[in-house]
Specification:
Blueprint (H helix, E strand, L loop, with lengths): L1 H31 L1 E10 L8 E2 L3 E2 H4 L2 E6 L4 E5 L9 E11 L6 E8 L11 E8 L3 E10 L2 E13 L1
Antiparallel strand pairs: 1-4, 1-10, 2-3, 4-5, 5-6, 6-7, 7-8, 8-9, 9-10
Length: 161
């Protein structure tokens, strides 16, 4: 009887740990849901950099872009801004993983798609969600510059649901 009780306690503990991860992801996805503006892009180093984000456009085209996150199917749409930028809607899917137990934030893979949510390429971009509340969000993407880590910070503001 004692062994069964111990087994039951271990099983409950495992289920509780697994549900916390799911609840945390669902809360973050619920907060991300809706429309956001990418306001600023900064870097871990000072200087002038010619950065292309997500193999799509320059950082200048991404500043002021609008993003829509649809968490029930892990998809979204963004539209670039600027006079010399392609202002058509761009579709993407996201795969969420690597949840930080302390912060509840996670890394995700952002993958460009066509309108039917099928991948046009095998390219995906690893991004870390480093801040999220009801009105602001920050992503970090670390790449290599001259063989050293170079971090791109993308700061968003919530527009509406």
């Amino acid at each position: 009887m004692r062994n069964k009780l111990m087994l039951f306690i271990v099983a409950v503990a495992l289920v509780a740990c697994g549900s916390t991860k799911t609840q945390t992801t669902n809360l973050s996805k619920r907060i991300m849901k809706g429309y956001w503006a990418l306001n600023t892009i900064t870097y871990s180093q000072s200087g002038e950099f010619n950065v292309t984000l997500f193999n799509d456009a320059t950082a200048g085209c991404f500043k002021g872009s609008t993003w829509r996150f649809i968490p029930n199917n892990n998809t979204g749409i963004y539209t670039l801004s600027g006079l010399d930028c392609d202002n058509t809607e761009k579709h993407f899917v996201s795969t969420f993983d690597k949840i930080d137990k302390d912060s509840g934030l996670y890394d995700f893979l952002l993958k460009p798609t066509n309108e039917k949510h099928k991948s046009e390429t095998n390219n995906g971009f690893r991004v870390s969600l480093t801040h999220l509340d009801d009105t602001t969000m920050q992503w970090q993407q670390t790449v290599s510059l001259d063989g050293k880590p170079f971090t791109i910070y993308m700061n968003f503001t919530k527009i509406n649901e």
